[in-house]
Amino acid sequence: MVKPYELHLFDWNRMIDSFHTESDRGAAVLVGGFVENYLGVYLRSLVVDAKVADGLFQAVGPLSSFSQRIAVARAFGLISKNDYNDLTLIRKIRNYFAHHPLEASFSTPPIAQFAAHLSEQQTALGSYPNSAAEQNKLAYLYTCAQVCGRFHLKMDKKAKPTKEDER
Fold it and tell me: Which residues of the chain have pLDDT under 50?
């Protein structure tokens, strides 16, 4: 398993190559796992004591699961309400695929219902997919990309010194 602090946004392109060759299940778990780990990267970028933070992200730590990371990020105002909603849907889609070994696709009713509420659903529709399942899969991918992109921008902005920092 890739540790969250070893993952970088530039790894997204490598993951996308795999996404397009995977089944719906493989694609959903792959991209959802990337988002979960990148949320961990974002949260770790905010810590002031890395040794204390290490315990938070361990297997039984309070930030070990995707749902816990989402809840903490929202509770402390680290993500917007829209990102919270998207992350919750991404988690639900990923978990459905991971825990339903038979007959799961982006056209399966629970998945289709979750995907219909993703923020990038209209963007996916504009991509001219051949089917509703393909539209849902693209909406999932696009939403995951947008959320990770916003995490990256926040980390990048934090890393760049401001004029105030230079004083």
Answer: 1-5, 164-167
Predicted confidence (pLDDT) per residue in 9-43, tens digit: 667 777 787 788 889 999 999 999 999 999 999 99
Q: Are 119 and 82 in contact (CB under 8 A)?
A: yes
3-state secondary structure 75-127: HCCCCCHHHHHHHHHHHHHHHHHHHCCCCCCCCCHHHHHHHCCCCCHHHHHCC
The dihedral over CA atoms of 68, 71, 75, 80, expressed in degrees to the nearest 10, equals 130
In this prediction, residue 2 carries a pLDDT of 39
Least Cα distance to 4 among 88, 65, 87 occurs for 65
SS3 assignment, position 141 = helix
Task: Provide the phi-psi class of 82: left if phi over 0, else alpha when psi is between -120 and 50, else beta.
Answer: alpha
List of residues 6+ apart from 135 with CB closer than 8 A: 115, 121, 124, 125, 127, 129
C-alpha of 100 from chain center = 20
Instruction: Give the tokens for residue 138.
Output: 């693209």
One-letter identity of residue 11: D
